[in-house]
């Protein structure tokens, strides 16, 4: 896993999560800017996943490739799913959906890093 790219993804996701959760607490529906920032976060997560998939072909594979692949699929699909659900819910709950989606992404990235680190030790 790419350290700086993973760190950037985590930091951006946590900042956006704080923003979305604050807007939800203030009873604000998702704005166009909120939806666009989630789309940008989705693109950042997609770049991270592509880099991780390319890394699978360099010869070092995780001990549990199926679990790693499952986390890759979940990581790339989670933000677009949250974005789609937020578009369906044009109330404060849509903003909460974006916040929850953004706060779960760092957990997925950290888990991918944990699985990848086990590979380098073994």
List keywords for this structure.
122 residues, mainly alpha, 4 helices, Integral membrane protein, membrane
Structure description:
The chain is mostly helical and 122 residues long. It contains 4 helices and no strands. The chain has one domain. It has helices spanning 3-25, 32-56, 65-88, 92-121. This is Integral membrane protein. The chain crosses the membrane at residues 6-23, 35-56, 68-86, 93-112.
Structure at a glance:
The protein has 122 residues and is an all-alpha fold. It has helices spanning 3-25, 32-56, 65-88, 92-121.
**Residue-averaged pLDDT:** 89
The tally of domains stands at: 1
> End-to-end distance, in Å?
16 Å
Rg (C-alpha, Å): 15 Å
Number of strands: 0
**What's the total helix number?**
4
Q: What's the assembly state of these chains?
A: single chain
Largest sheet: number of strands, sense, barrel closure? none
Measured by DSSP, the beta-strand proportion falls in under 5%
Structural class assignment: mainly alpha
Order of helices and strands: HHHH
Task: Spell out the blueprint of helices and strands.
Elements lengths: L2 H23 L6 H25 L8 H24 L3 H30 L1
